[in-house]
């Protein structure tokens, strides 16, 4: 017995190994996956108690806005 979408899964797997697409997947770990890892580790987005895209978007925007405000107001160490 096969899943109803198994044909599409196999096609996606086949395309992933195509010679023109392979370099894109090699770059993925340096670009997209790194951004997700930073969001999870540095911005406290590993777990959430909220459900739904709208609520999660609100939480993410709040976290990033707070970080942006903190970097704008931070003056760094004072040289004496």
Notes on the structure:
The chain is built from 4 helices and no strands. Helix content is about 60%, strand content about 0%. It has helices spanning about 5-15, 20-30, 30-40, 55-75. With about 80 residues, it is mostly helical.
What's this model, at a glance?
62% of the residues lie in helices and 0% in strands.
Roughly what is the average pLDDT, rounded to an integer?
82
Indicate the percent of residues in helices. 55-70%
Number of strands: 0
Major sheet summary line: none
The structural class is mainly alpha
Q: What does the oligomeric state look like here?
A: single chain
Rg from C-alpha positions?
Answer: 20 Å
Per DSSP, the total helix count is 4
Query: Uncertain segments of ≥5 residues (pLDDT<50)?
Result: none
Gap between N and C termini, in Å?
Answer: 74 Å
Q: Which overall shape is indicated by the principal axes computed on the Cα atoms?
A: elongated
* String of helices and strands: HHHH
How much of the polypeptide forms β-strand, as a percent range?
under 5%
């Amino acid at each position: 017995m096969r899943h109803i979408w198994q044909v599409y899964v196999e096609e996606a797997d086949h395309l992933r190994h195509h010679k023109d697409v392979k370099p894109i997947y090699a770059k993925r770990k340096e670009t997209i996956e790194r951004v997700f890892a930073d969001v999870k580790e540095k911005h406290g987005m590993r777990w959430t108690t909220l459900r739904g895209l709208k609520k999660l978007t609100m939480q993410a925007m709040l976290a990033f806005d707070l970080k942006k405000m903190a970097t704008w107001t931070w003056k760094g160490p004072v040289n004496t």
